[in-house]
Amino acid sequence: MKAVVLVGGEGTRLRPLTLSTPKQMLPIVDLPMIVRVINHLATYGIEEIILSLGYRPEAFVSLLPEGRHGSFTIKHAVETEPLGTAGAIRFAADKGGIDTTFVAVNGDVLSDLDISKLIEFHIAHKAQATLSLTPVDDPSAYGVVVTDSNSQVLSFIEKPSRETASSNWINAGTYVLEPEVLERIQPGRAVSIEREIFPAVVNEGGLYAFPSDAYWLDTGTPSCLLRANMDLIDGTRGGPPHPNAREHSPGIWLHGSSIIKGELIPPCFVGDGAVVEKGAILERSVVGRGVHVQQNVKASNCVLLEKSSIGEGTSIRDSIIGERAFLGAGSVISGLSVVGCDAILEPGTHLQSGRVP
Ligand code: GTP
To answer: How far is CA 113 from CA 15, 23, 83, 173, in A?
Structure first.
């Protein structure tokens, strides 16, 4: 079966990280998000993946060129202007020659959904389209999906208030679609699958919903991106946080060779070529490849992306530091701050819930 993976959005909520790196190229525990998403699809026997590209396609093209990659083939569909979620699916499906049942996924969702079961469910219900549902604590930021006892979708309720929400099951962003759905999508303009196409399929009784409480996380905001990393080192998802990491001691995961003179308080991950100097204390943090943590740094609940450099005596809590960023000595960073790739912070910078640049 073929799958379209949507990775063309600008990822505005994750700026400044996404100013230079598209969202799905950002690493989750030192492995680009797109690789994690594709590996999940490949586990369920997806043989051809069409990357639906728009914003900054070059990074994807260079990491995942067209052609065979082990058990699956990659194709690219690069939009010249944003086509929205449905327009992008149609454009990619045309490029990929899709003419039978296929899968489409939002490429910024990390999930352990059983895609084989989703496909079986779709076929058993003779659906035109099936969407996966996931439960959330607070549905008010999402679109709630209302179904009948046969799992047929009756309606969508966009961003209901917490009190009035009739259910807490939301669209999880993984779909199985029949090619006839593509014909509904007008080519050449931006079309939203959630707002324009699915409501039309609901009116014909062709949309079904498959509930699953498997792990699910939309990585679209800094707090969710941080959580995606923490869920892997905490063991929430099971297995090693990185496919090639080894557990050096309980909860301390290392990949490749690193130099650690400071203290690591579990859970932590340290990537290949990273250096943690004497007196540094890292707690529940992800240190990407080639990161340099200088003496007496204190970091907790942090993600330090590839080749960033953290100056002596700096303190970082609950924050994300971008690739190759340079933090001057004695800085204090906290409160879900995000420092962009290549940013340079003067020594002694204080950042509380800040974004640079
Ligand atoms: P924000 O700007 O922060 O909302 O992020 P986003 O641009 O990624 O938008 P959103 O999270 O709503 O997108 C859901 C998924 O669809 C993501 O995987 C996006 O990359 C993708 N996406 C959104 N719009 C487009 C588009 O116009 N073309 C393509 N190819 N993908 C898109």
So the answer is: 28, 21, 27, 11
Task: Report the nearest atom of ligand 1 relative to the CA of 22.
Answer: 20
Contact 145/131 with Cβ under 8 angstroms? yes
Closest CA to ligand 1's atom 30 = 8
194-206 pLDDT, tens digit per residue, is 989 999 999 999 9
- Structure-token pair, residue 326: 């340079």
**Nearest one of 153, 182, 185, 181 to 169, comparing CA atoms:** 153
**Percent composition of the chain: helix, strand, coil (DSSP 3-state, to 5):** 25, 35, 45
pLDDT for residue 166 is more than 80: no
Ligand 1 center from residue 297 Cα (angstroms): 36
The residue whose CB lies within 8 Å of the most ligand 1 atoms, and thus the one to mutate among 79, 108, 170, 338, is 108
Query: What CA–CA distance (Å, rounded) separates 306 from 292?
Result: 9
Q: Which residues line ligand 1 (CB under 6 A)?
A: 6-13, 23, 52, 54, 79, 82-85, 88, 106-108, 220
Ligand 1 nearest atom to the CA of residue 53, by list position: 30
DSSP designation for 152: B
> Domains in the chain, ordered, with CATH?
2-220 (3.90.550.10), 238-356 (2.160.10.10)
pTM for the predicted model, two decimal places: 0.95
Distance from residue 154's CA to the centre of ligand 1 (Å): 25
CA-nearest residue, atom 15 of ligand 1: 106
Express as a percent the part of the chain with pLDDT over 70.
100
Helix/strand/coil for 96 = coil
CA of 220 to the centre of ligand 1 (A): 9
Question: Considering only 50-54, 160-164, 172-176, which range has the smallest mean pLDDT?
Answer: 160-164
pLDDT at position 142 is 83
- CA–CA distance, 216 with 196 (Å, rounded to integer): 24
